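Feature request, filed as a ticket because there's no other form

It would be nice if the structure record came with a short human-readable summary line next to the tokens. Right now we just get the raw output. Example of a typical job, pasted below so the devs can see what we mean:
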Amino acid sequence: MEERIPQTFRQGVHTGSQQAQAVKQVGITSVSLRTTRWEPITPTDIPTDARWVYPVNYDEYTYWDTFDEVQTEADPKGSYVSSIMAAMKRQRDAECIRAFFETSHNGQLGTTTVAFPITGSGPWSSTWTTGNQIPVNFGASANTGLTVAKLRQGRLMLLANEVDLDEGELICVAKASQLDNLLAEAQVINRDFNQPEAPVLEEGKVTRFLGMRFIHSELLYVDSNPYTWVPVYHTKGMHFGSWKGIETRISERTDLRGVPHPWQIAVNSVFGATRLQEKMVMQILTSP
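Raw output as currently delivered:
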């Protein structure tokens, strides 16, 4: 009934029907050593760019006929609204999942494409990673599901990219089967790792591990192999933009037959998501 992923992203409120700048990107620079007196100034040109987010308009309509109301002796309009609202919130989660690994857009007008950094080709080695992707057989002799070794590698890669873990939070989105994979890992279920002040398990659910918070979603992308693409990301590395929140309207359809007339239930929302920093997002391949 509730969306799970958008609130972990950097938030933005946008207007207009076209794309919006999600963030101004300022590149890395360094300082210079001064060695002589009265040395001429040589300014540093710090690279700047912009990352763009695009609105997507979603809506859904359904009718409730008073003809049915007479037969059922019930008025489920509220339940219909709840069902459509839940569908819209799932779509907001799906938009976030799409943005993790799809091409992003940079430049003055958003015309420069930035692909998720995956390089090389299979078969994957079990001891190295390529780009921001952790292979399906990482740390093993065969393809595996979600493992502690893969999570550790994802965290290592984020740290190697100088991602500040004290500013923001690490998130892993995983399916039920992958969270169940972790329940077979000794480091997850061992009491030595489950201290009262920082429990890994709460009522049998994996909540936090290695400084990551886990979010359950069955909407993750599965490729043709089939491998599931599991995102591990820093909260400052993703952006969720809202042009219009979830709006619900129930109206009487006087153009349709019935006394009273049938009801129309409509839900609409406009939003979009994008990746802000490639170095803040990792992709773990799992089987399945």
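Something like this underneath would help us a lot:
Residues 120-129 have pLDDT under 50 and may be disordered.
Residues 6-25+48-277 form one domain.
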